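Exercise 7. Given the components listed, write out the predicted structure of the assembled complex. Treat all entries as one system.
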Amino acid sequence: MPELRQPPYPTVLKPYGQSLVALAKERDDIVCLTGDLSKQCEIDLFADAYPDRFIHAGMAEANMMGVAGALARDGFVPYVHTFGAFATRRPLDQVINAIAFPNLKVRIMGFMPGVSSPGGPSHQAIDDVALMRAVPNMTVVDVADAVEVRQVANAIVDVDGPVYVRLKRGEIPVIFGDDHRLRLDRADVLTRGEDVALFASGMMLAPALAAARLLEARGASVSVVNVPVIKPLDAATVADVAGSAKVVVTAENHTVIGGLGSAVAEALAEAGLGRPLRRVGLRDTFAEGARTGPYLFGKYGLSIQAIVDAGWTALGRRDPAPVADSVPADEGEYSPV
Amino acid sequence: MTRVSDPGTHWEVTDPARLATMIRLRALRMVAPHGFGYLGQALSSAEQLAALFTVMRPGRDRLVCSPSHYVIGFFAAAAELGILSEDDAATYGQDGSPVEAIGTERSPVMDYTCGSLGQGLSAAAGFALSDRLKGKDRRTFAFISDGELEEGQIWEAAMFAGHHRLNRLTVLLDANNSQVDGPVDTITTIEPIAAKWQAFGWTAQDIDGHDVDAVIKALAAAAEGDKPYVLINRTSTMRGLDCLPADADGHFIKLPPDLAARAEAELTGKLERRDA
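Answer.
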């Protein structure tokens, strides 16, 4: 089993931005586009290092996607940056017709997934995975920690088609050990158990690991699976792990419709596996503007407790569920709620 | 199938005015088996397409067709010039054919079309930017329509190209005053067109879009400027086919067999008399 750190997790700043600069040093076909969110998407580093390959598209996402498609057709590998909400909603038609249908190597980097932004429904990409997953040819990635974030630009560079990546902004927790390898073709089984198969992606991995520890302490053994690639889903691992568990729980920083939970449900059904399924995520609702992301994670059921309760009730346990207690985190540390 | 900018692609235009009539005739023959279709787009753009293929350097310059209903004219021109095979052109819009009636990214001839209206100018700007990044001597020609000016993305792209001074980008704007619901000017006021583009940092010029020599001259001159260039072609979706009823819907012309036969006779007669 892979090495995992314990919360509170240390954090790092701008791991993606640094990795893209490193990639651009090796590959002169990398170009970087920004929709007026350069610092926020960590690509101020790229602008400093490679100003000739840095393109301001301004607040014009539709045009940005069209320009990116043409650059890709010409042999460049454009990395396009904005918030996930703006990358997937407004220019959906452009992503579909100018990028996905011709299967071009455009990398769409959507920052601030789900309710990690307290910026309100306009800025919260709660449906981006569903939208991008529905688009043919699109690969959809939601990385969990800084070790994966550092690798993602490199991991996707040669994918033969468009890729959508969700990236948390700001301080990124370090959950995995340094030897962890982000793979696009395989979900990672992090723990093995016989009661609950718990599939998590992106920012929900940290609370999933915490929830698993609480369940284990009360005698429910849990398989925790990190699913960085939601499409194409590693359905074989899903079926394997779910098949050896009594119940299945999914956890995603996204609406429960169309994202990881739906993908897992489809894989289970297609494998003929009947397992009680609980999907943790936004319950077909918009969130709201707030001061902090963690408040929203708690309020909208994206918490350790929500995952514990989902597993507990799915198992049919009648005794009170274990109570989650967030590990205190100091400045520069990260602990899931 | 070939795109115009593919290395090794070759064609030659000897008589642009005659090519325009041949585009009309070919488009008529492509639409006739369906009984209706985007013939009006070919009629309004025939001279512009003839001019484009005269000015473009085969295997080098790029061609974007933004309003994808116009691809019929592009296919017709390409078939006349040997870029698209007769057989492929004959499958236009038929089941299983890659020569789709509404163009997509798998369509031959053009370098980009996008299918959904208002998107092509962004792709064209991307090509022009790419050439600048690579230091390539290529021009990018984008064909757009007046109805598309209602789409916001056109103006995003116009601002982008103006800001980046993409002077290797040349736009032909087919101002035929036709869209699905009727004349453009009854639906949305898009005038003054030239002043809008000028305000966005472009060189803009109004022209009679059926004067093929004037269009050729303007396209050739456009290469010399330091800004992107838009040629606003005033045209009609009924042009060059007198037998069409005055109330025909220029966006989607109905072409029953008897009308198709009269149209065929009119255009072949014109070519035989060499008055086009």
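Discussion: The radius of gyration of chain A is 19 Å. Chain A touches chain B through 27 residues (CB under 8 Å).
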